[in-house]
Specification:
52 residues; mainly beta; Rubrerythrin, domain 2; three-stranded antiparallel sheet; two-stranded antiparallel sheet; 0% helix
Length: 52
């Protein structure tokens, strides 16, 4: 289970992911700008844009 807070690389909005069951490679959308993001690493939690 991923835990932590990170920021959207596009709009810099805080993404509070505590308690979410995330997998490496999973795609999610930023709730503020809607940008598709990919979980690149779980430890440390790293989120990047889909095209990175």
């Amino acid at each position: 289970m991923a835990s932590g807070e990170t920021r959207c690389p596009e709009c810099e909005s805080d993404l509070d992911l505590d308690g979410y069951d995330l997998d490496q490679g999973e795609t999610l959308n930023c709730p503020e700008c809607g940008l598709p993001l990919v979980v690149r690493s779980l430890d440390p939690l790293t989120i990047e844009t889909e095209d990175s």
